[in-house]
Amino acid sequence: MQAIRHPGPASAERASVVACRAHPVTVTLRAGQSFGDALADGFAALGFSAGYLRLEAVPMRRLCFVQPAPAPGDGHAAWYSATVTLGAGAVIRTGGVHLGLRDGQPFTHCHGIWAGPDGVGRMGHLLPQDSIVGADCAVAGWGISGARLEVAEDPETRFALFRPRADGDPRSGGGRALLCSLRPNQDLGQATAALAARHDMGSARIEGIGSLVGTQFADGPMLESYATEMLVTEGRVTGAGARISAASVGFDGRFAQGRLAAGRNAVCVTVELLLIGDR
């Protein structure tokens, strides 16, 4: 398994996790708002300040994104490309987005696959305040109670990253869940399975986004870039371990999809997961 060197000291704690409840929701995104504001307002209308959505066929008036890029020479292990902008007629084909807080204000982290008016598929990290929703649309996901993601400075990577924090008592209803973040240089599947076992979650759905040191699929081409951005497209954890399918993009903008090879996909900077237990 590949590894990456970050500028700061490695934390002894390699994962952060907070137990919570995940409540199935349908969030309405309103046309003309920035994606970030539309997401926060849509969740707030349902009484949630934290959650995760699976984006499908979301029309966009403007869509701005970046992709992973080599280290800029300032000490960071990796960085982002220049901004790419897609105009009216763009669509988010599929994606995942976490809602949490940064400096007390709503903040989102989104990876996905999209296309502009030319229909060419692209993948990356959405810039939520620069991207504008094109038409009212309904998106399914989960509101989270009892925990939230909150941005904090990370001494190991020297990035500001989402970390789970307790957030009062969970609401009644919904399903048992774990809100998690993983630190670098541990296999995504093995770390996820270990978290579930540690919290007596026998089987669960895996949702989330993050970055990997390259991406190695069980079948299909490997993405060689030493930093790739990843979206979980389907994932399950059971007593037998974790099985995760993902889409991932590298430095050259090529993206690929498939089942991740077991034991061969190290976290690069962070992975943010929502594990939703089976009822």
Automatic annotation (TrEMBL):
User: Its domain of life?
Assistant: Bacteria
Q: What is this protein called?
A: DUF296 domain-containing protein
